[in-house]
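FAQ: What does a ligand-bound record look like?

Like this one, built around nickel (II) ion:
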Amino acid sequence: MSLSDKIKQTSQEIFEEVKANRRHLHQHPELSFQEFETQKFVRAALEKIGIEDVKDIAGTGLIAEIKGKEANTALTCLRADLDALPIQEKNTTEYTSCNAGIMHACGHDVHTSSLLGAAKILHQLKDEFTGTVRLIFQPGEEKLPGGASMVIKEGGLANPTPKSIIGQHVMPELEAGKIGFRKGIYMASTDEIYITVKGKGGHGAMPHQNIDPIVIASHLIVNLQQVVSRWAKPDMPTVLSFGKIIGNGATNVIPDEVTLEGTFRTFNEEWRMAAHDKIKSLCKNLVEGMGGKVEVDIRVGYPFLKNDEKLTGLLQAAAAEYMGASNIVDLDMRTTAEDFAFYTHVVPGCFYRLGVGNAAKSISAPVHNPHFDIDEDALKHSTGLMAWLAINSLK
Ligand code: NI
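The answer part, i.e. the structure of the complex:
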């Protein structure tokens, strides 16, 4: 029997166990950097498989290795994320979240149970591949500074440095059975912008006695769109969106200040930093020109995510061999962000998508939605595929 057939057979055998693990995690979600019970659950599962020397990393994360033949010849990493979101689940299933206001609405329960399944397959077949697979279960993907940045700081990609890192993420827009890849730049960098426009409040009937921060903030929002429409190169996708404005006056009261909160996203580090400077200088010049004062706080988030061309090409071909070429799709670039991006700036990385939707079963809600769910049939191949990709990346 070929190695891929052995992997397929094992992934069928462990399907019910992977499904049970996923359901347990789904019922017991924990917020970013508070994954205490999840960490215990994953540790117990790894030890039950027979994986030794499981270490804690980044607080509530775990790291371990599975050594194949000639373990020192090559090293690759498989990564899953552990955290859930502050969302009240609105699904009623056998496995609905038991934790009020917390939900695995981004599929990290799927990523964790799939990686546990892949670990079991790799451990069982460790005499059949060459090299070492490092397993990274990281906390806090959903919250700055991102668990990935902490894993890197604590040496998760060192001693020795792996030749590659592979991550899987659910995609409800893609039918279960399909797998998506994109070579090169894939997801955006993300930064949080907090602006306070300070004026001088007073009676709305006598604007000449005040410095109106509402009018200044209005000009500011419109003018800041020049960052996107005039200053970004036309071939550089850039997004600047403000989702929160607070100017707490009244029909006849001009407030003292207005606060704005927004997000800035793009795909190039140099332009990203230049854009921050442009945003700050435009805020200062425009607001001071209108008589006000301004404070700008830009909190730097995740970098853009780049899939290594060579590694991704190799894994896409390996996935086609495993899943059938007709089940492999090319993905579009997207302006959402993911902390896996940190890893891709340290070692060659590949972040691919697992189809989990099913139109016939009406499973289509997007991630971060209280109705998000998956077609669990995707767990039949999510484990074996991860193991297969890891083995291929070691060649
Ligand atoms: Ni996610």
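Follow-up question: can I read anything off the structure? Yes, for example: The chain is about 35% helix and 25% strand.
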